[in-house]
Amino acid sequence: MMNDRAEHISKAFDEELRLLNNRLAEMGGMAEAQLAGAVEALCRSNAELAERVVVRDKEIDALDLEIDMFSVRLVALRQPVAADLRTIFAAIKISSDLERIGDLAKNIAGRTLAISRFPPLPTTVSIASMATVVQSMIKQVLDAWTARDTQSAADVCARDVEVDQHYASLFRELLTYMMEDPRNIGPCTHLLFVAKNLERVGDHTTNIAEQIGYVVLGTRPPDRQTHDPTNALVPEADSQ
Amino acid sequence: MMNDRAEHISKAFDEELRLLNNRLAEMGGMAEAQLAGAVEALCRSNAELAERVVVRDKEIDALDLEIDMFSVRLVALRQPVAADLRTIFAAIKISSDLERIGDLAKNIAGRTLAISRFPPLPTTVSIASMATVVQSMIKQVLDAWTARDTQSAADVCARDVEVDQHYASLFRELLTYMMEDPRNIGPCTHLLFVAKNLERVGDHTTNIAEQIGYVVLGTRPPDRQTHDPTNALVPEADSQ
Question: Which positions in chain A touch B103 (Cβ < 8 Å)?
C-alpha cells in the first residue's frame, strides 16, 4: 500500500496531468476558432475579422510555449514512465501542431487582407467547402484526444484523402482562372497558398491523430504520408 | 564521491547523449544533402537526381522516428535534469525540424519532376542564389549546435531576413513571368511553391538556432516570428 507521501505526490501529479490536458484542449479550441475566423474573413471579405485573427495568433504561441515549459518541468520533477511519459511527449508534439495550425490560420487571414483589394472571385465556394472538411477533422481529433479514442483518430487520418481531393480540384480551378485573365493571377496566387495552407492544416490534424495511437497503444505509425497532390496536376504548357 | 554503480550509470548516460548528438548530426547532414540535391536537380533539370531525392526522404523520416523513440527511452530510464533534459527535448524539436526540411526538399524534387515537361525559365538563377543562402544557414546552424555556439546561432536567426528578401524578389519575378505569358502560369506556380519551400526551410533553420539558446541558456525566445513577406506584394489588379 502507498504511504501518505507517495499518495500525495501521485495525487499532485494526476492534477498536473489534468492541467496539461486542459491547457491542450484550450489551445485546440483556440486553433479551431482562429481557423474558422480566418476562413470566414476570407469568404466574406471581412478585413476587420482578418486583422483580429492576425493579432490573436500571439495567444496560441504563448500557450504553446507554456505547455512546452510545463511539460519539461513535469518530466524533470515527477520522472514519469510508460503511458504518463508518452502523454507528456504527445502533448508537446500536439501543441506544436496546434501552434502551426494557428500560424496557417494567421497566414490565411494575412492573405485575406492582401486579396481584399481585388474584385471577388467565385472560388470562395470551393474554399469554404474544403475548409468545412478540415474544420470538422480538427473538431473530431480534439474530441478523440480527450476520449483517447483510437478508432476515431484512425478515422481522422482516413479523411485526409478528402482534403487532398478538395485541394487538387481547387488547384485546377485556380489555374483556369489565371489562364483566363492575367488580372486574376495576383489574387489567385494568394488563393493557391490559402488552399495549400488548408491542406497542411489537414496534415497537422493527421499528426495529432497519430499521437493518440501512440499514447494509447505505445506504437508509432510505420510511415508518415507527406506528398503534394498537385505535383502532377499542372496542365501541359501547350494545352490552352 | 560517486560510488562505482553511480559512476557506471553516469558514463553510460554520457555515451547515450553522445549517441543522440551523433544521430542528430547525421540527420542534419542528410537534410543538408537532400536540399542540395533537390536544388541541383531543379536548376539542371535532372529528373533522375530528383527521383533519388524523393526516394531517399524515407531515410530521414526513419531517423526522426528513431531519435524520438531513443529520447523518450532516455528520459524514462535515466531521468535526467537541467541541461541534459533540455538537450533531449531540444533533440526532439530539432529532429522534427530536420524532418520537415527533408519533406520540403522532397517537395522541391517532386516539383522538379512536374516542371521538367515545360521549357526552362530564366528564374533558376534567382532560385539558386536563394538556395545558397538557405543552405549556408543550415550548415552554420548544424556547426553551431555541435559547438553549442549561441553567438553563431543568433547570427543564423539574423540571416533569415536575407532569405525573406530573396523570397519577396523571386515572388515578384515569377508573377511578372505569369502576367507576360499565360503559358508560364503552370511552371511558375510550381516555382512559387519552391520559393515558399525554401523560405520555410529558412524558418526551420531559425527554429533549430533557437533551440541552441534554449539548451545553453535555459531560456526561450520571447516571440517566434512567423510571417509571409509576400502578403503585401501582389501588384494591384489594374496595374498591368
Answer: 226
| CB-CB contact of B37 with B105 (8 Å) | yes
- Render pLDDT for B192-221 as a digit per residue (tens, 0 to 9): 999 999 999 999 999 999 999 999 988 776
Residues of chain B numbered 177-236 and touching chain A (CB < 8 Å): 178-179, 182-183, 185-187, 189-190, 192-193, 196, 220, 223-224, 226-228, 231-236
**How distant is the Cα of A38 from the closest Cα of chain B, in angstroms?**
15
Residue with cell 489567385: A188
Domains and CATH numbers, chain B: 3-239 (1.20.58.220)
Convert B36-56 to b/e letters by CB count within 10 Å (16 or more is b): bbbbbbbeeebeebbeebbeb
Model pLDDT, residue A195: 96
Q: What angle do CA A101, A104, A105 make, to 5 degrees?
A: 85
Rounded (10°) CA dihedral B127, B133, B136, B141: -120
Task: Tell if the CB–CB gap between B228 and A107 is shorter than 8 Å.
Answer: yes
Please report where in the chains the cell 516571440 appears, as a residue: B223
* C-alpha distances out from residue A171 to A189, A192, A193, A230, A233, Å: 10, 7, 10, 7, 8
A33-87 per-position pLDDT tens digit = 999 999 999 999 999 999 999 999 999 999 999 999 999 889 988 889 889 999 9
pLDDT at position B2 is 54
Q: How do residues A7-31 score in pLDDT, each as one tens digit?
A: 877 889 999 999 999 999 999 999 9
**Is B65 in the A-facing interface, judged by CB distances under 8 Å?**
yes
